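Encode chain A's predicted structure.
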Amino acid sequence: MLKKFVIPALFIITPLFLNVYSQTEIPAFDFLRVETGAKASSLAGAFDTYTDDPNAMFYNPGSLSTITNSKVSAGFGKYLLDIKFGTLAYATKYKDLGWFGVGIKYFNYGSFERADENGITNGETFNANDLMLSVGYGNFIYDKINYGVTLKYIYSGIAEYKSSALALDIGVQYHLPKSQFSLSFGINNLGAQLSSYIETKEKLPLDVRVGVSKRLEHTPVRLNVTFSKLNESREKFLQHFKAFSIGAEFIFSDYVSARLGYDNESRQDMKLGTSLGISGFSTGLGIRFAEKYVFDYSLNSLGKVGSTHRVNLGYIFK
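Encoded structure for chain A:
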């Protein structure tokens, strides 16, 4: 009964309520929206209901209190052109106080040749990079409801110009282990700039998210659906739900799984002419070996623009 009431309520009430906080202009620190971690990326970002994974705190900090053993995960990826990025996540339980996590997300955009307003260069170069540092806390109530909050420091630099911000992620997860059903709700990047590149401060990429997942009975398949950007202004009501991702994980054993994902908004944004190709689709593989080592890989298609690769290595403290 609870599932039948809660799910429709979240999908109907959330967009209406958050129209007050909707945003239409392009926000600052948009790198925060790039998928974090190979496992999440292979599922096209449909990762909000995942548990027992330190990278899940980047999507919903309510996942922190689902960590069984202390875990660490480091990731690396190559984006388009010379753009490279890395992530680090660690989560653990500390005595009876609850669960804590730390996360790092870093982007390096490479080196650029400096030029004046007339396009004349003098041989000088400059760099550009983005950085996010986060600290999270999680706990649970009634054994089924996990909640968490993450404080984030965000930094961006281009040559001698710099900008910074503080933000919060707030998340809740609801789990029914017997039916292997999960529901999540989160608000990410709730905050403001401390300093800006120019005099006018910009908004952060506020993101209201709802996720649902279900392990299909008598199959090795777990289906995940995440609706993001529910707070953004749309011309029509149903367009509030166009930013959705679908992920399917095929769990062959405790040690091997394969993944497929589809990102609807990414596919539409990558449309070039009349051709979409396989843009918006993703795939990946997860392997656990020697009981405490985890390897994850993902491949994401951007259609004719190219593709991105991510690799994560994790360690489980026994």
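The longest helix spans residues 2-17.
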